[in-house]
Each structure stands twice: as structure tokens, then as C-alpha cells.
Amino acid sequence: MASDFTTRFSLVQYSKIHKMVTSGTVDSTVRRRSVDKRRSILDAAAPVFGDVGYERASIETIAAAAGVSKPTIYSYFGGKEDLFRESVADSARSLNADSLAAVHSLDVRSKNWRASLVRTAFALTACQRSECASALSRLVNAEIRRDPSVFAAVREAGYESIVEALAGRLAILSNTGMLSIEDPVLAAKQLMALTQVELPDLTSLGTKPASDAAVRKAVAAGVDTFVRAYRP
Q1: Which helix (H) or strand (E) holds 100?
Q2: Residue 135: HSE in the Cβ half-sphere, 13 Å Cα cutoff
Q3: Are 188 and 161 contacting, i.e. CB atoms less than 8 angstroms apart?
Q4: H/E run at residue 140
Q5: What Cα–Cα distance (Å) separates residue 176 from each residue in 110, 111, 163?
Q6: Is 79 helix (H, G, I), strand (E, B) or coil?
Q7: Contact at 8 Å (CB) between 153 and 88?
Q8: pLDDT, tens only, 129-184
Q9: 118 within some domain
Q10: Boundary of a domain, candidates 43, 78, 113
């Protein structure tokens, strides 16, 4: 009797497990847990690296903050060097999310495209003016001589994605005859340079906040110079 019950129970359990496997439930659950664990490690690593720097940061401290074991971190990232590189790149992606959203919202088909260009350029300064951006910049500058690839990782995750998105919007302005642009990527870099050139002076090299009014005035002047240069 007990044997029959055990057999029936085992068959029911096997049927449930088989259904989960064949339907992909097990795989999706494992993938979700893996992504969540990776996210937890990155979220824990950023403040540790930011507070004490690369050399003084330890895998033990990061593992404890993330609620995982040291072998788990090595399994996901290989070691402290790769974790640090991915951590700063992840921070750059997070910081630039709003900037990318601003670029994508740039209205290049309306009659007020210049005003929209000013709003977008102003929004792009917000990332550089934030305390998080300043902290990331200090961390990267402190470690770049030890590992130059850190700068490349941050640039690829942040700056290059913004340039690419902005170049696409400027290309539309060129295609509609509003501007005459042969190289949209170069034009995007020039627009960012012209609208952000006053930031070091306005913020005393990032040591004090700048008023929105002062930044907006500087941005508008940069946009005017850009538009004059690329007018048909």
C-alpha cells in the first residue's frame, strides 16, 4: 500500500518536473535568479569601490554586501579586476539613461527644433553636474593609470552611446534640409563640446554647483554657434 502511494507520488512529482522542464519554466527561473544575483553583486560593488577605491576594496566586503559567497562573485565576474571594470561601466550606463532619453525625445521635425535642441543639450549637462557623475569621474581618474581599459569601458557604456543616438537625430535634421551635415557623428561630438565647454568654469571644475540659468545660457550660446556652422 505504502509502496503504491510512493510510486503514485513519485510519478506525480516527475510529471510536474517534466512539465516545467519542457515548458521552459525551469530555465527561465534559473536565468531570472542568475540575472538577479548578478544585479545584486553590481549594486553592492559600486558603493564599495566608490568609498575606498579599487586597491582597498575586497571581494569579501562586496560579497557580504550582496549577500552572496566569494565563489559566486568569481563565478560571475572572474575576479576583482573584471568586477571593477563592469561596475564602472554599469554605473556609466545608469547615469546616462536620462541623457539617452533626452536625446531620443529630441523633436527634429517641428518648427521649434532649435528650442528642442537647446533643451536636449541642457539635459545632457545634467549627468556631468550630478554628484554621482563626479564620484564616478574621480574613481575612473584615480584608476586609469593602473588600468587604461577602465576609461574605454566607461566611454563605450556612456559617451559613445549618447553620441551615436544624437548623431541619428542630427542626421534627420540634415535630411530635412534644416542643417547641412556630412558627418553626423562628428557633428554630435561638436555639439556636445560647444554646449558643455563652459561647465568647468561654471562649476569651478566640479567643486561647486552651477545655477540652471547660467548653464542654460551657456548651452543656448553653444547651440547658436553650432547652428550657424551647419546652416545650409
Answers
A1: helix 97-104
A2: 14
A3: no
A4: helix 131-143
A5: 11, 12, 20
A6: coil
A7: yes
A8: 777 777 777 788 888 888 888 888 888 877 888 999 999 999 999 999 999 999 99
A9: yes
A10: 78
> To 5 degrees, how large is the angle CA 126–CA 196–CA 176?
95
Query: What are the helix (H) ranges across 144-183?
Result: 149-157, 159-175
Within a domain: 201: yes
Own/partner pairs, 133-136, CB within 8 angstroms, 24+ separation: 133/95, 134/206, 135/50, 136/50, 136/88, 136/91, 136/92, 136/95
Question: Cell 532619453 belongs to which residue?
Answer: 101
pTM score, whole prediction: 0.70
Q: Count of residues for the chain?
A: 232
The C-alpha torsion from 155 through 35 and 80 to 152, rounded to 10°, is -10
Domain CATH for 103: 1.10.357.10
Cell of 161: 552611446
- Domain membership of residue 196 (yes or no) is yes
- Domain identity same for 144 and 223: yes
